[in-house]
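step=encode ok
step=design start
structure_in=
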């Protein structure tokens, strides 16, 4: 494999997620590998309707100094209800971007089912990497129908399918044709060495005890009301701090801030480690539903690597972990459990010495899957 086109659900930015960790490892192991990383389409009309600054996409751009990674971000000009060829146009744009780089016969890695049309219009060997069950998310009937069509296409025609959680394996395996290679489970992980190297206390962490959530703050996962109630009940005894991209509506962010929650915004991986190490406790106020039950949260591995006490709602990953540092609490008991975690907290690196899955293991597993796509 020398060329790889990755249709991602996330942008390539300073906040690394599953795709970037895996791709970084693959680049290190294969000096000939070239990557076109396709970011989610810009949607300027939707930006305007939600009172955000409108953004447009961009053509092929190099990333870093390696000369082997480029990003491409298409632009969605019209809503799908006004342009039935929207998905086809986006897919054609990706194919054209790959051609401009001289990617004649690349391997296709699809994380975004919205770009399933690429499989239909090319002969590129395909991998479908499922990290979320979007069919269980709160979406409009039209969007769920479109996602369902795209997922059926990918499960039927992709040469390889990978999932990140046992629950996704359970849900999606019956939909995979028998003649295709079975679905492969490749969970998430963490850069263990980096997360266990001691860091200084970040200057913008509030004075006094802090309980911290790390990750994208998204209404599909994050229980806004529970986080706000926890902050109010901790007033004078600790501060709830959120570190990560803010994907909330302005009214939701305002609700959190009025309750005393401190939103610090995203941090690069190396910076994030210091926040985790110096928090008195780490929290996971997640909604528990069919959508979150499909996840394998990367924060589970990050939290375990630093060995801090953790309080989580009974969400997938955390509720199944055999780790006495993790306290599972329902919404009613959550603030009290957080207070208990603060009281029992000890400074880093206490507790940060247990085995945790490393990204290097996942990179090797993904490399084996991708190698099969090039096997005659």
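sequence_out=
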């Amino acid at each position: 494999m020398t060329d790889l086109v990755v249709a991602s659900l996330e942008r390539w930015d300073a906040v690394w997620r599953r795709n970037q960790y895996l791709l970084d490892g693959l680049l290190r192991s294969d000096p000939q590998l070239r990557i076109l990383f396709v970011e989610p389409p810009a949607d300027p009309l939707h930006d305007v309707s939600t009172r955000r600054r409108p953004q447009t996409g961009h053509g092929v751009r190099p990333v870093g100094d390696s000369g082997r990674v480029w990003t491409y971000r298409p632009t969605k000009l019209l809503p799908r209800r006004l342009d039935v060829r929207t998905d086809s146009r986006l897919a054609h744009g990706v194919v054209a971007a790959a051609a401009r780089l001289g990617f004649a016969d690349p391997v296709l890695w699809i994380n975004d089912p919205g770009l399933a049309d690429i499989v239909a219009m090319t002969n590129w060997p395909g991998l479908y990497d499922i990290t979320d069950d979007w069919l269980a998310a709160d979406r409009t009937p039209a969007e769920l129908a479109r996602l369902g069509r795209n997922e059926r296409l990918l499960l039927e025609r992709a040469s390889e399918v990978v999932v990140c959680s046992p629950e996704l394996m359970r849900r999606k395996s019956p939909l995979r044709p028998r003649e295709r290679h079975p679905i492969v489970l490749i969970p998430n992980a963490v850069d263990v060495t980096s997360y266990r190297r001691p860091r200084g206390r970040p200057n913008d962490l509030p004075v006094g005890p802090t309980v911290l959530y790390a990750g994208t703050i998204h209404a599909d996962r994050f229980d806004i009301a529970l986080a706000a109630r926890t902050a109010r009940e901790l007033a004078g005894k600790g501060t709830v701090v959120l570190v990560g991209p803010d994907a909330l509506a302005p009214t939701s962010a305002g609700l959190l801030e009025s309750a005393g929650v401190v939103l610090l915004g995203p941090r690069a991986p190396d910076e994030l480690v210091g926040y985790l190490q110096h928090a008195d406790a780490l929290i996971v106020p997640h909604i528990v539903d069919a959508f979150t039950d499909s996840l394998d949260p990367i924060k589970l591995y990050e939290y375990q690597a630093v060995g801090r006490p953790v309080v989580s709602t009974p969400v997938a990953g955390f509720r199944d972990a055999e780790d006495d540092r993790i306290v599972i609490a329902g919404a009613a008991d959550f603030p009290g459990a957080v207070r208990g975690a603060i009281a029992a907290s000890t400074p880093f690196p206490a507790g940060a010495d247990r085995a945790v899955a490393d990204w290097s293991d996942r990179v090797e597993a993904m490399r084996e899957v991708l190698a099969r796509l090039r096997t005659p």
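step=design ok
step=annotate ok -> The first strand starts at residue 3 and ends at 7.
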